[in-house]
Write a structure and sequence with these properties.
By secondary structure, the protein is of the alpha/beta class. Helix content is 50%, strand content 15%. The chain has one domain: 3-Layer(aba) Sandwich (Rossmann fold). It binds cytidine-5'-monophosphate.
């Protein structure tokens, strides 16, 4: 059982993916965390994230390990816990440039396919290109969407207390990241033809989880 859950940020993708994996006893992989982790490594090692050739040269260097427990997702970079640092605004602002570099994608897609192959009970994999590129033979593909208003409101609530950013700034940053993620040449953010699209704008998190669990069990 391989469940691919794609979509932009603020659609409830991570919370839904983790809850579905936990409910169904499946492993969990957050591929966005891997792109963030490699971005964080580039930033901390003084690599200019806008220099695609420099990023490509360094793409093979960091050792990135993702935990598979949906109740406690972990990610380490060169054996250092990176769960906190990968969520900063600095990483969020730089991640689209790094993830557009084909060498970065090739490296991480290989890790992602290995994780899926090793998850004996099955896995929920969340990202932007899982259904189209990483695991095109997934058992079930979900594409989550939501209105820009709903997404920005959720993201602002998520950031509250951590990093001050108002709704308008969050919305602008999200739109910029979406445009970059959708516009890149190598495996852009996209819905697979055979994915089920779920608009989460008017749904509670529990309703989205229920909807996906029902689709898995069908
Ligand atoms: O999901 P999250 O917001 O953590 O993803 C961070 C970034 O990682 C995205 O904005 C995108 O640039 C990149 N990403 C990607 N392909 C994926 C998952 C994430 O390019 N499968």
């Amino acid at each position: 059982m391989i469940v691919a859950i794609d979509g932009p940020s603020g659609t409830g993708k991570s919370s839904t993916s983790r809850a579905v994996a936990a409910k169904l006893g499946l492993s969990y992989l957050d591929t966005g965390a891997q792109y963030r982790a490699i971005t964080w490594w580039m930033l901390t090692n003084g690599i200019d994230v806008n220099d695609a050739a420099g990023v490509a040269d360094a793409a093979g260097k960091p050792v990135i390990v993702s935990g598979s427990d949906p109740a406690a997702p972990t990610i380490t970079v060169d054996a250092v816990d990176a769960s906190g640092p990968i969520r900063t605004q600095e990483v969020t602002a730089a991640v689209s440039a790094v993830s557009a570099v084909p060498e970065v994608r090739a490296r991480l897609v290989e890790l992602q396919r290995t994780a899926a192959a090793e998850a004996l009970a099955g896995i929920v994999v969340e990202g932007r290109d899982i259904g189209t590129t990483v695991l095109p033979d997934a058992t079930l593909k979900i594409f989550l969407t939501a209105s820009e208003e709903a997404r920005a409101a959720r993201r602002t609530a998520e950031l509250k207390g951590k990093e001050a950013q108002d709704l308008a700034a969050t919305r602008a940053a999200m739109a910029k990241r979406d445009a970059a993620d959708s516009g890149r040449k190598t495996s852009p953010l996209a819905k697979a033809d055979d994915a089920v699209e779920v608009d989460t704008s008017e749904l509670t998190l529990d309703q989205v989880i229920e909807c996906v669990v029902t689709l898995v069990e069908e």
